[in-house]
Every structure is written in C-alpha cells, then in structure tokens.
User: Fold these one by one.
Assistant:
Number 1:
Amino acid sequence: MGARPYSSLWLVLIVLFMVTLSNVVEGYSRLRPQDCSPRCTYRCSATSHKKPCMFFCLKCCATCLCVPPGTYGNKQTCPCYNNWKTKEGSPKCP
C-alpha cells in the first residue's frame, strides 16, 4: 500500500520530463519567420559560398519554419527542409 504514492510521483516526473523534451525538440524545428536570419547566418557560417547558402537557407526557412542545428547535416530534424528538392532532384536547402 505504501508504494502507490511513489509510483504516482514517478509517473508525474516522467510526464514532465517528456513534455520538457518535446518542447526542446520543437524549439529546433518550428521557428517564427524573424528567427530565420540568425539561424541561417550560423548555418551558412562554415561555407565559402555564403551568398547562395543564405539565399536558399532563408527561402527554405520561410517555407518550412525550420533550420537544422549546426553548420552541416542534421537535416533529419527538419523533414520539410530535408525533403525539399530542386527540379533535378538534388537538395534545395543547405
């Protein structure tokens, strides 16, 4: 009978952890349009082709409201950004 309050406490803690985790993950994916410029500036900071990178990153961000974390890769965190292709079938978003 005494173990029941502890299992309820654990359940509450697990739910709170999951809500917090989902908010962190969503923070990477859903942006407001005004958040695109700083995210794209960082995303394109490691390339030598900054102008085209920024152009396409801003375009992709405005459409998808998402920019993957880091300067390269991690596109799986933003499915729209990852799956948007050019007419030739290559990735549109940097």
Note: Residues 4-29 form the longest helix (26 residues).
Number 2:
Amino acid sequence: MNDGLTRDEYDALEQIHKGTHGRVSACVARNTKRLAGLKYIAYEKNGGLSLTEKGQQTLFIRNCIDGLRAVASDPGAKLAADVAMFLGKKGHVSARPAGDGYDITEKGRESLADIDSSAA
C-alpha cells in the first residue's frame, strides 16, 4: 500500500474526499493522472472524481498516524471520532480519566517509532 505518495498527492486526495464543486483545484489537476493510475481515485460517469476504497483507506490511515502524532505531542489534542475509536481499539491511545483528551500508550509510541524509522 506504500506507493510513496507526496504531501501534495495526499492533499489532492483530501480535496477530492471533501468534494469538488465545479472546477478542480490546481493541486487536484496536477495529481489526477498519477492517483488514478495508482487506483486511489476514479472518474465518475458525470466526469467528476471520487475516491476508491483504496483511496479512502489511505486517507484514514494517514489521519490515524497524524492523530497519533498529535496525541504524542499534545495529550489534549482533538481527534476525529472514527480515528479516536480506531486508535483506542488498537490500544494506541487511552482516554484520559478527566475526559479532556488521550494519552499515548507504549504500543502507540512503538508504532510511531516504527513508522518514523520506515519513512527515513
């Protein structure tokens, strides 16, 4: 699943996920050919763009990693409900007793270290 997407390509996926109305942004236009070739996006019958299942999963994983990094640097960081549920189920974060955020677990720290070492 690691196709080495750039930050610009991730931004294009996020913009497509949010929905494009009318003309696509320069970011989306720049990355459409590669993202379609890698099967992250597909053309709809009306000519618009939509995320494929692979694209949705990739964005979700990126959001989980970003959420884990946010909690590691600031326990009061806000997480999207689906991200918080997933990270909690996997044992990467635990809800703080006061209900004001999350604490990263040892498993979460190990996962971040593994992600950072493989990205380098």
Note: The first helix runs from residue 7 to 18.
Number 3:
Amino acid sequence: MAPVTEDQVEAVRALVAAIPPGSVRTYGDLSSEVGLASPRIVGWIMRTDSADLPWHRVVPASGRPASGLRSRQLEKLRAEGVPIVDDRVVMKSARL
C-alpha cells in the first residue's frame, strides 16, 4: 500500500462525516478528492478508523456492499431512505 499521511486519513474521515443521511459516496469518490493512489486505501482507512463515522454511507461504485457487511449496511441505508433495488444502492439517486 502507498504511504498514507495522517492528514489524508483525517481528510477521508472529514469527508465521510460530512455525508448526509440518505446519501452515499464511493470509495473512489473519496480517494480522488483526497488524492490517494487507490480507492482501496479508503477501504483500509474505513476498516481501521471509522467506528465513530457513518461508515455505511461509503459504498463501492457498483452500489453493492461487500458481502460481509451487506445486510447490516443495507439495513442502515434503508433506514435513512437511501433507494435500494435488489440489494444495490441506486447510485443515480443516492450518490453525492
């Protein structure tokens, strides 16, 4: 993995914290905005440092959550009014 600075970690955290209920952003959106080499780095940040963040509002570009999180993430998103069809976020409607 490419080196990640504390400033980049904090920038990702700030962007995730700013996603309003009912909306989502992708790992790629956040990666591009912060200037990270890969969306996977955002995934790493989210796995290691997101307990106090609305982690469920960050999804893959496909709109389909990872299998290990799928039911919990979709439940949280549905509760916020995010449009979901066939266990996939309707990105055209929900993506910031």
Note: Residues 20 and 37 are 25 Å apart (CA to CA).
